[in-house]
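Input set for joint prediction.
Command: fold jointly, output tokens.
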Amino acid sequence: MNNEILIVGSLALDTVETPFGRIEDAVGGAGLYAATAASLFAPVHLVAVIGDDFPQQALDELAGRGVALEGVQCVAGGRSFRWSGRYEYDMNNAETLDTQLNVFADFNPVLPESARRCGYVFLANILPSLQLKVLEQVEQSRLTICDTMNFWIEKARDELLEVFRQVDIVTMNDAELRQLTGEPNLAKAATKVLTMGPQYLIIKKGEYGASLVLAEGHFALPCYPLPTVVDPTGAGDSFAGGLIGFLAWVGETSEQQLRQALAIGTATASACVEDFSINGLRKLTADELYRRYVALHEMVRFEEISRQAILST
Amino acid sequence: MNNEILIVGSLALDTVETPFGRIEDAVGGAGLYAATAASLFAPVHLVAVIGDDFPQQALDELAGRGVALEGVQCVAGGRSFRWSGRYEYDMNNAETLDTQLNVFADFNPVLPESARRCGYVFLANILPSLQLKVLEQVEQSRLTICDTMNFWIEKARDELLEVFRQVDIVTMNDAELRQLTGEPNLAKAATKVLTMGPQYLIIKKGEYGASLVLAEGHFALPCYPLPTVVDPTGAGDSFAGGLIGFLAWVGETSEQQLRQALAIGTATASACVEDFSINGLRKLTADELYRRYVALHEMVRFEEISRQAILST
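tokens >
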């Protein structure tokens, strides 16, 4: 076990339309966003599958960022996973126009020897049964995080719940949380998820921020306010990548570090959404990330009031 | 000018249905929620209109909390303002089933002599032209806050913008903010509102919390997490009432106090939504309010990271 990070998730070619423009067949996918983000902090091993249409340049760039690509299978003659979506006005929700699984349909994640010893594991949103296969191959880990989506909650609930029993942190958005638990109240729904196995739940709320729920309480962070949100695609995976990257880097996962990691993830995601594809993450320097971390810290700060003062009213 | 609070807003009889039950003709209205909340901190003067169907007991209770009712006009033989609404599943949005303005249709707010010297003024959501009439009657004030709604943004935009020029703080929810400015990005929309007159903008985001925007930056707070949300009616007005109450009590409105006031407002609103009508606010003690303030403070706290540490990655 080491302080390196294993990320399993899609590499995709995305066609995305937002009020700010359109990109066609740009590199994307949960694995790409998370790996690019996490590589700001620690060595990353990426496990994914691509067709031979996936641009070599993107792979070279990942390698240049310290991402080991031994676990990226390339299917000769195959086409990469493709997603096409559109964001309207307030950009809170993506409308999926087309999904082509292509080589992703037969994805069988095989971990290279070097990846099995990663202490930090992020299972991006893929079939829960594949997430389980990955966990089987991991030798021992310090921290495992999984993401999921509405489709698996409905179609592969049992396998998903098995994943939940085996990981330390589950990330979901609020709609998924309500769907999974059948509980409209988020606080109650979160408590239910904690009884399903994971020690921590991270609720992703898009432009409303994120929160961390543990048995002892809550931590909540607003979104980093940005005057320009160009494309929200990949925000959640950039968030998770920054978060696990930071945790691997500090080598501790107590509540204090998790709170900091949520802020780092939030700052990382804020860079992602400022441009299409991974262009925003590409431009993100440690200096700028630090600046946003400090700004977030300042943004949520407020002073205590003395008990005596308020009780005298 | 003194440290007392003037609140102008509706007193209503509400029929509300939520997944947790139904109440019929229960006391409500923005003025009632805000005055009940603000009275936790300082003397309040309420200006409103009712029919003779409004329960005397509710008025007695307000008086018992230090709310001066000289400005509450009672129209003999008139019927009070009535609102009927329903909340579904996640309780983020009310569906209005019926609105009967009744005596509220001819409301002409006249400030009793004693109310004109209030240093703190909250103009709850009423016709912008009436908000202007109130401001004309206020002798001098330290802090004025106005609320509004989508209907006035559409139907009385010019008067509303005149109100904005005359107040210190505007409160809106995110949909209203987007509607008013025609700007989908909240950070940009907020900046636009600050050019319209007010020094501060408070964005209310329901279960996602609230934020304070000023020229120099943002402050943001999540919602207080509650396992039981019974009825969100009045949450925004309880928030505003707690906020202005706290500011009147401390007698200062610099950014630090405003940040604290947002937390106090958030804690106050959390008590409101735990029960129907004003039952939640009624039960709220200074002790419990303080406990929630401290819990919020703890909930958003995270440690700084040294610049050197993060830049060494």
